[in-house]
Amino acid sequence: MRSSTAPRRLLTACAAVALLATGCFGDGADAIKAEAEADAEVDRDLPEWLVRVFPAPGQETTATRAIQVRHNAVAPDEGIRLILDGVDVTTYATNGRGLLEYDVDQTASPVELKPGMHRAALEYLRVSPESEFDPEQREVLDTYTWEFEVS
What is the value of pTM for the model shown? Predict the structure, then answer.
């Protein structure tokens, strides 16, 4: 009969730990859940070719060192162009499969993210081998624009 009480004690202990954890971390878990829901709401407003932009639209941030764009434009004839405060910074960005990142700490970066409002725009492009040398050959399929604030 001894073996039947051990599982019961273990189950009781697990339940107590779960209740304790819920009580101790409930506020933190609620905050994380609320933040995730807010992010999901922002993500729903993005066109289907975008997964996420950072900083998020309307976000106020103090430590923005990079603009990050996660996208679905990964086919050989697709591309993304990033325009920050009216300046095309795409050639200064790291452009990988599904990710474009503009690091403002690069020595050659043409746009600094000083305190204030900033406007970013993305162009979803159809590209061809000829368009590498002739930007006029690129076809803009869609655009997305958002603002964020650096404080």
Answer: 0.67
Q: Are the beta carbons of 34 and 40 closer than 8 angstroms? A: no
Query: Within 10 A of 147 (CB to CB), how many other CB atoms are there?
Result: 12
At residue 13, what is the residue type? A
Report how far residue 133's alpha carbon sits from residue 127's, in angstroms, rounded to the nearest whole number.
Answer: 11
- For tokens 């590209």, what's the residue? 127
> What integer pLDDT is reported at residue 112 of this predicted model?
84
Provide the CB-side half-sphere exposure for 136 (13 A, CA). 0
CA angle 49, 55, 59 (to 5 degrees): 115
Q: Are 52 and 70 contacting, i.e. CB atoms less than 8 angstroms apart?
A: yes
Task: Based on the fold, state whether residues 35 and 17 are members of the same structural domain.
Answer: yes
CATH at residue 102: 2.60.40.1220
The alpha carbon of residue 125 and the mean position of all alpha carbons in its chain are separated, in whole angstroms, by 20
In this predicted structure, what is the pLDDT of residue 44? 62
What number of CA atoms fall less than 13 Å from residue 7's CA on the CB side? 3
